[in-house]
């Protein structure tokens, strides 16, 4: 089942699932971060990572029925994730700034300027990167044709490539910090899993392509 608006076809299930995933990830990151536990802390830095948001958009695009639907669904899912993240942070007490009109400097008020500026900045990132990841997810889907697995391979490798790039950067700048005992192992394991996934995707594409050519030659 899908809904068609002009040339854009939306799958209600894809929209619901991707929006729910964005909401869950956006809320889970800050909540887990607030818990004083190594395991929840490790999970929190995974949920707030850039590649997790890219994965949400990629999955939304993969489930979409059209290219425009993929781009818009992925964009919407990332906006939901961004808004959920910052609203949760605000509820937790972030964005409180001191009231310098108070002589004792103890009064605080909610910093709307900081809160809204962060939302605007990250919504702009979501507007640029969300549709691209969604489109890549849609184009990663296989269809008929012997060369299709190899043609789809670059799009399928997007998320592993993003994971490897981000974790490598974070290991360079964060592993030696005060939080290095947690982030170091998390990013190292995540990078190894992404590299293994990329290798597996390459092997599957090659084997599938050879199998299709063999079947075509036998006909």
Would you count the extended β strands for me?
4
Radius of gyration: 21 Å
Q: List the total number of helices.
A: 8
What profile does the largest beta sheet have?
2 strands, antiparallel
Distance between the termini: 35 Å
Q: Order of strands across the biggest sheet?
A: 1-2
Order of H and E elements: EEHHHHEEHHHH
Low-confidence stretches: none
- Percent in strands: 5-15%
Bin the helical content: over 70%
Shape: globular
What is the overall pLDDT average?
86
Topology, element by element:
Elements: E1 3-5, E2 8-10, H1 12-33, H2 38-47, H3 50-63, H4 67-91, E3 96-98, E4 108-110, H5 112-139, H6 148-156, H7 158-174, H8 180-218
Antiparallel strand pairs: 1-2, 3-4
